Amino acid sequence: MAEIITAQGSATQRGTEIGRQTKWQMIQLVDLCRESPPAPFTWPETVKRSEPYYQQTQIHFPHLIAENDAAATAAGLDPQELFTTSVEELWATAPMNHNCTDVIAYPPASHTNQIWVGHNNDTDPKVAELTTVVERHLEDGLVILGVGTAGLFVSAGANSQGIVLTGNELTQTDIQEGGIPRIQLAMALLYAPNVTQAVSIALHPRRASSYNNIISSVQESVSVEASATAHRLIRPESGLIIHSNHYLTPGMQAYEGKPNYTSSLTRHRRATQLATQLHPLDRENMISILADHGEDNLPSENSICRHGESQTQFSFLANLTTGVIELAVGNPCQNRFEAIWQISSHS
To answer: Taking the model in full, what pTM does it have?
Structure first.
């Protein structure tokens, strides 16, 4: 079972505990980014370029910066360097990239009125080794589960108010230099008490760019397909939201920075096909989709369960009806799903 790191108290106290317990992962991530700064810049130049992003995050989400700085100190790292690893906008292809596939199923697409959120998180194999699961206990009573990289950076998660976050990296043409990094906004979303406020955070006017953030609860799910300057909201159609790493809505395709992305198009098409064939979806069907290797059953860069230069880092499955969250660390074709969290027990 994945080890859950617990951090509680103020943002500084939480950061200190996260830094202490994920020191190795943080150091490895900083070293990885140091070794591959975005061309044509050196690592010191990249750190300098991250400063305006840090300043905007500090203005609007000071608790995230307090966590970052305390975690860096506890891990023996420079706070600005650790923050720089989160500014994916500085890289054409960031070391901590998130090429993912999501399947969200509400009735009538799901079996016996169950609500399912399935997410495969794909990244560089070197980053996949740095997977962490952190449970934050805030002073106001909110509890946040975050699954991601090196303690601070979240790709999927949930909170004790019943908000579940998953989503997909998008390549966009309108990045706003010096804005709030998208991965910092993803963490900020999990502090929201409801879907409406979470959507508002996702669409923060000072965002540098955006993921396709999928925000779900028992009542509703919305896919916030956005860039730095525009967005469209996708609601379930016949109970389903299926998304990978390209823009789906006509209004956002003008911002597509990676047209004809074969892997994303193939994964989206296959997930849609399986969700239709296996309808209505239950736990076994959801896992079958997340572990799928295509019609030819050959693991590849283009399969939902990815193998290659980008591989599935973890597979996240939430049953919003029961509140049970399961996780398979690594490729779901090779690793078992285990229950790691219960939303209702923290509400």
So the answer is: 0.97
